[in-house]
Amino acid sequence: TDRALSHKTLQQENVLLKNQLHQKYRFENIIGKSSEITQVLELIEKVSSTDSTVLITGESGTGKELVARAIHYNSSRSEKMMVPVNCGAIPGELLESEIFGHVKGAFTGAIANRLGRFEAAHNGTIFLDEIGELSPTLQVKLLRVIQERRFEPVGSAKTIEVDVRIIAATNVDLEKAADLGKFREDLFYRLNVIPIHIPALRERKSDIPYLLHHFMNSFNESKSRALAGFSTEAMDLLMNYGWPGNVRELLNVVERTALIWEGNGPITIKALSIPGTSTGGNSYNGASFTNGSGPKLELVK
Asked: Per-residue b/e over 182-214, b at no fewer than 16 CB within 10 Å?
């Protein structure tokens, strides 16, 4: 009876976790009202109902993984795993084993069989981030998996068949890299079935007030604060800044500023810490955007 109760509890927790993931990666959690991001959202919604391979492009910090997860969690594969692989963060000599797995004794240090990410993603989605960092050897092996849906773990003669949706992402121009011989042209075309380009934040500045509103409300909720947004002067600076780190940098600035702010009213320009800008009440050059260009940032209860 205890085991049955424990199993039922685990099942309930699993359903709850899945529901939370579905909520977290709903389309509307990709924030913005600009025509640029609206087009992206429309494409994501269409793509989610298919099994087609997707190539997401955009600068670092634009939210490529968020888009990948939105596609997966709104697809027919949502009950299965989305398995991420950061191709740029794993050393090249380990990446093949990470992606395809290995058998015991395949190389020095392979003391046991290891399940690869492709096999772990069976019936689900594999997300290959920074795909442009793949070595020529791994590009060939990935091409075969895409074409034949089968592979061999490192050191094994056994072929494993997989049913996996592939979503890849890169901040590199793969078409240009292919022209220069740095990326396989045939692999590029296999990946680029449905291309989704996420614009840089500086290309959709009208979305900044919406993002600020969302991040501030999230911070207030998680930290039990009641911060009331930004002053007009602070908002001007946030709108005028170039955001080289994109949405990720904006989130970091909001979180850092909100943590140190001890005032009662809207956060002033003196509290902002943005690289390369003059804060502390000093003037700066550029266009002026006020709260009027977007939603007001007062706390919404």
From this structure: ebbeebbebbbebebebbbbeebbbbbbbbbbb
Q: CB–CB of 60/171 below 8 Å? A: yes
C-alpha distance from residue 98 to each of 87, 104, 146 (Å) = 10, 14, 17
Per-residue pLDDT of the chain (301 residues), as tens digits, is 555 555 555 555 554 554 444 444 455 568 889 999 999 999 999 999 999 999 999 999 999 999 999 999 999 999 999 999 999 998 877 888 888 887 776 677 777 777 889 999 999 999 999 999 999 999 999 999 999 999 888 877 788 899 999 999 999 999 999 999 999 999 999 999 999 999 999 999 999 999 999 999 999 998 888 888 899 999 999 999 999 999 999 999 999 998 888 888 899 998 888 876 655 433 333 332 333 333 333 322 2
Contact 188, 143 (CB under 8 A): no
What does pTM read for this prediction? 0.81
The two beta strands, 125-129 and 54-57, are unpaired
Cα separation of 142 and 148, whole Å? Answer: 10
Helices (H), the chain: 2-24, 35-48, 64-73, 92-100, 117-120, 136-148, 174-179, 185-191, 208-223, 232-240, 246-260
DSSP, collapsed to helix, strand or coil, labels residue 276 as coil
Q: Give CA angle at 299 (45, 42), nearest 5°.
A: 10
CA atoms within 13 A on the CB side of 273: 9
CB atoms inside a 10 Å sphere around CB 14: 10
